[in-house]
Design brief:
alpha+beta; Double-stranded beta-helix; three-stranded antiparallel β-sheet
Length: 291
């Protein structure tokens, strides 16, 4: 799994693997050239893609005109796939459809977050491809949470390193009405997805690098601190995601597929394209218990 990433220029991967990796962001983000996903992935290609994904955190593949079945098959190379608990599923339960327009506004994707940290084992990798693009807008942004961690002072890092944080599916609670039937459904979901306690600072299972692992969409509070203390610390940790130097911004084009490391990044889908339509299909790879 050797990928030379010492230079931001295009770098050749292993000679047996027919693609090149071009770094397109200072801290995160790379484009993959010379790979046609319609041909599927062999083991060597998968291993090199995983190496690039681990190093760059986001990899972009342009002009990939695959169908939903191929999307699922490629995603399975990276591990077991999730079925999203709060979205209706179609023919392929592993696919989450994000279809937004003036009559169907987004549900909290325009908030900085890491996917499904309300799970005991949150999403490891997310794989997203576009189907319908708006004429303007609809970019996706990511923030490198390793850089956020490194930006903090040494005394503050020492303070937060041992802390743990409670998470909840709080944004999806709006899907449940006050009817007895919906409240019973909500109680069942709470039983299936009890509030997990995750480390505030997570260590990446492959790279070993550390990152801040809280997000305003799913984080409730810091364990052991009172409400004012928790709110104050979380405010400090939420602010750096707005720093452009830590971000990568993607302008979608027809046939774009993107994979990202959900363990060390947060993302935000710009909600600036109404009344146009933006339709995406997403798969998510099951993760491990954060440490």
């Amino acid at each position: 799994m050797n990928v030379n990433v010492a230079s931001p220029a295009i770098v050749q991967t292993d000679k047996a693997v027919p693609f090149e990796t071009e770094r397109v962001g200072r801290h995160l983000g790379a484009e993959i050239h010379g790979l046609d996903l319609k041909q599927g992935l062999n083991q060597a290609t998968y291993e090199n893609l995983l190496a690039a994904l681990t190093e760059h955190k986001i990899i972009v593949l342009r002009d990939q005109h695959i169908n939903t079945k191929q999307h699922v098959e490629i995603s399975r190379m990276f591990g077991e796939l999730e079925v999203h608990p709060f979205r209706p599923q179609g023919e392929f339960p592993e696919i989450l459809v994000l279809d937004n327009h003036k009559d169907n506004p987004v549900l909290s994707t325009d908030v900085w977050h890491s996917d499904t940290t309300f799970r005991i084992k949150p999403t490891k990798y997310t794989i997203l491809r576009n189907q319908i693009l708006p004429k303007l807008g609809g970019d996706t942004l990511w923030c490198d949470m390793e850089q956020v961690y490194q930006s903090l002072s040494a005394p503050f890092r020492a303070f937060i390193d041992p802390l743990k944080v409670w998470h909840d599916f709080k944004n999806f609670r709006v899907l449940f009405k006050k009817t007895p039937e919906d409240q019973e459904r909500l109680r069942k979901m709470e039983e299936l997805y009890p509030n997990p306690l995750h480390p505030l600072v997570r260590t990446h299972p492959i790279s070993g690098r550390r990152c801040v692992y809280v997000n305003p969409q799913f984080t409730l509070r810091i364990d052991g601190l009172n409400e004012d203390e928790s709110d104050a610390v979380l405010k400090v940790l939420y602010e750096p995601v707005h720093t452009p130097e830590y971000q990568f911004r993607l302008r979608w084009t027809e046939g774009t597929l993107i994979m990202w490391d959900n363990m060390s990044t947060q993302h935000y889908a710009a909600n600036d394209y109404y009344p146009d339509r933006r339709r995406m299909e997403r798969t998510a790879v099951c993760g491990d218990i954060p440490v």
